[in-house]
TrEMBL record:
Its EC number is 2.7.3.9. The gene is ptsI. Its cofactor is Mg(2+). PROSITE patterns: PEP_ENZYMES_2, PEP_ENZYMES_PHOS_SITE. This is Phosphoenolpyruvate-protein phosphotransferase. Residues 155-228 form the PEP-utilising enzyme mobile domain.
């Protein structure tokens, strides 16, 4: 047995055989050829295309049976591309001109196509980029004789072991088969961690380099997402512990069900609204199960991360499904937060030197205005089915907010012009997740209806700590004085302007932090649905006076460790 420690990223304990998820798409060999090699390279291309064609035809037939004509037509578009004589012409020309192997020719063809399509102003043409990627990956897979790994088709229960997991890897994966996740990189607030918690999959991230190399496919792996421990080939003691943890989990689930219908309030009756964060529409069942009073953050970009860009109609259906299921409870939809670690090659949001400081979220949407307005129209149309609020991510200046509001006004006008009814009183708010927004929140408050503090990014940008980099994760302290001060500042400006202030970063999901935040003045917290019962219990254990005094003391401390010690000594959670 070998034990490794990492970051406890998603609670729960699990044991299952390892499934190694290794993305080797970067490993495409590139080498020189001579003119005499060209016919053989073309033959290889024909053979790989033929295999890809057969595969796509089978997928099309399966999609037609399982999902209907509309979904199947995606594969018709792939077949058309494979059969396009222009593609063959371009590959042949590239082989002759550059004298590099056919894989290189295909990669240059892909880059050229992606540049061309993604610079088109028409979102429908931009959407074709994902088709290009899909077809190219399929052909390259056959050329290199590599099995395409899909996390959607797993048939047995496994622990997923990977160097890193992108949000797009996790969308569409077979959640019932993945019993645990271990990755070499990533931290508690990385998107892989957030998704693991949303899907209730135990996860230990950031176990450090070369872990994947130590594991053999199928080898037994034990994941303790509560303690951040991973064991390869666990012994009997570990296995017994897993059994005990399972019994405790079942008991906890029973208690949580009992707590569901009790409102969250302090001992002396101050009501706190506990709402949920979701990534995909099908998490709504969980939101209801845990008794959330609404959705405080719908990370809408996850609809875009499955390798296909949804159009207005598809988005309208997704938002409507969520808002209808919530039966009048508020649903805050955050507009597309793409960029950073959520790369979307289909839309050209990639390849920056400093993606977290780059073309991300609202910055991206203010440039891709058609894509942005398509989303806004879909949200506006869904607003008649319940109570929707719109939230803009990564606002860092008032000018961005004004421009976003301007495009929203255009989208409203377009909806009306098409005869769509919309909620005339729809509220708009912003994430406070960039230090400049917290510092200037008084100015921003004049142009929106609410704030939601995103501590995951606010900490990352305030402390200059990449939230997904395990090497510097130790600096991302839970109670950084600087971040606490920015939170306090935002709450103060929000109160002064009489607008709602909530907090939807991972900090809200920690019971002791939740008490601290209530003491600092917050009356609404948004978190993964499964965290609600424990946070509710913590809030019910104090009076508002105790929470306020605790916050006052915490803000006078010098560092995070002192605040942790204070909370541990005053709260028995
Ligand atoms: C945040 O930054 O705190 C937040 C809630 O947004 P995300 O985690 O999606 O970046
Ligand atoms: Mg954020």
């Amino acid at each position: 047995m070998r034990i490794t420690k990492g970051i406890a990223a998603s609670p729960g304990v699990s044991i299952a055989p390892a499934f190694l998820f290794i993305d080797d798409s970067a490993d495409i060999p590139q080498y020189h050829i001579t003119t005499a090699d060209i016919p053989a390279e073309l033959d290889r291309f024909h053979e790989a295309s033929l295999l890809a064609k057969r595969e796509i035809e089978a997928l099309r037939d399966r999609a037609k049976l399982e999902a209907g004509e509309e979904q199947a037509s995606i594969f018709d578009a792939h077949l058309m591309m494979l059969e396009d004589p222009e593609v063959l012409d371009q590959i042949e020309r590239s082989l002759n001109e550059n004298l590099f192997n056919v894989e290189s020719a295909i990669l240059s063809f892909e880059t050229e196509m992606v540049d061309k399509l993604s610079s088109s102003p028409d979102p429908l043409i931009q959407e074709r980029v994902s088709d290009v990627h899909d077809v190219i990956r399929r052909i390259l897979g056959h050329l290199l004789k590599k099995e395409r790994i899909s996390l959607a088709d797993l048939e047995t229960e496994v622990i997923l072991v990977a160097k890193d997991l992108l949000p797009s890897d996790m969308v569409g994966m077979s959640r019932s088969m993945i019993k645990g996740i271990v990755t070499e990189s990533g931290g508690r607030t990385s998107h892989a961690a957030i998704l693991a918690r949303a899907f209730e999959i135990p996860a230990v991230l950031g176990v450090g380099p070369n872990f994947v190399e130590q594991v053999k496919p199928g080898q037994s792996i034990y994941v303790d997402g509560d303690k951040g421990v991973v064991a390869i080939d666990p012994d009997e003691i570990f296995i017994q512990r897993e059994k005990a943890a399972r019994v405790a989990r079942i008991q906890r689930e029973k208690e949580n069900r009992e707590l569901r219908s009790i409102p969250a309030q302090t001992k002396d009756g101050t009501r706190i609204s506990l709402v949920a964060n979701i990534e995909m529409p099908d998490e709504v069942a969980n939101v209801i199960e845990y008794g959330a009073e609404g959705i405080g953050l719908f990370r809408s970009e996850f609809l875009f991360l499955g390798g296909h860009v949804p159009g207005e109609e598809e988005q309208y259906k997704a938002y409507s499904k969520v808002v209808q299921a919530m039966e009048g409870k508020p649903v805050t939809i955050r507009t597309l937060d793409i960029g950073g670690d959520k790369v979307l090659p289909e839309l050209g949001a990639m390849g920056e030197k400093n993606p977290l400081l780059g073309w991300r979220a609202i910055r991206f949407c203010l440039e891709k205005t058609e894509l942005f307005k398509t989303q806004l129209r879909a949200i506006l149309r869904a607003s008649i089915h319940g109570k929707i609020k719109i939230m803009f991510p990564m606002i860092s200046t008032i000018d961005e907010l004004i421009r976003a509001q301007g495009l929203l006004a255009e989208a409203k006008w377009e909806c009306k012009a098409h005869g769509y009814e919309i909620d005339p009183n729809i509220e708009t708010g912003i994430m406070i997740e960039v230090p400049s927004a917290a510092i200037c929140a008084d100015v921003l408050a004049r142009s929106c209806d609410f704030f939601s503090i995103g501590t995951n990014d606010l900490s990352q940008y305030t402390l200059a700590v990449d939230r997904g980099n395990q090497k510097v994760a130790y600096l991302n302290e839970p109670y950084s004085l600087a971040v606490l001060r920015l939170i306090r500042m935002t709450i103060g400006y929000g109160e002064h302007a009489h607008i709602g202030v909530s907090l939807c970063g991972e900090m809200a999901a920690d019971p002791a932090s939740a008490v601290l935040l209530v003491g600092m003045g917050l009356r609404s917290l948004s978190m993964s649905a499964s965290a609600i019962p424990a946070v509710k219990r913590a809030i019910m254990s104090v009076t508002i006076e105790q929470a306020t005094a605790l916050a006052h003391q915490a803000l006078s401390m010098n560092n995070s460790a002192q605040v942790s010690a204070l909370l541990a000594s005053k709260l028995s959670l």
